[in-house]
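Hi everyone,

Forwarding the result from last night's run.
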Amino acid sequence: MHQLILAAGDTVTLAAGGGNVVTQALQLFTQFAIIGGGLWAVWGVVTLAGGLKDQNGPATQSGVWQVVGGGLIIAAAALFNTIAL
């Protein structure tokens, strides 16, 4: 609990843990983004493997870009986590 003492001697009590809700929301967002990026990357690996098996160039390219995109999502969420919290 934080208290703010005014010049007139009055005391104002600020809500305890008010910023805690924002911190928890940002952590939850970060966790969902990391999990989502991981799932996107895993699905990209599946697409890549299917494209390689069938010798399908567009599917292989799509799979590679999905893996790269998933990695970027994970990296951005981790960076956001360190900057915002």
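The CA atoms of residues 23 and 34 lie 16 Å apart.

Cheers,
N.
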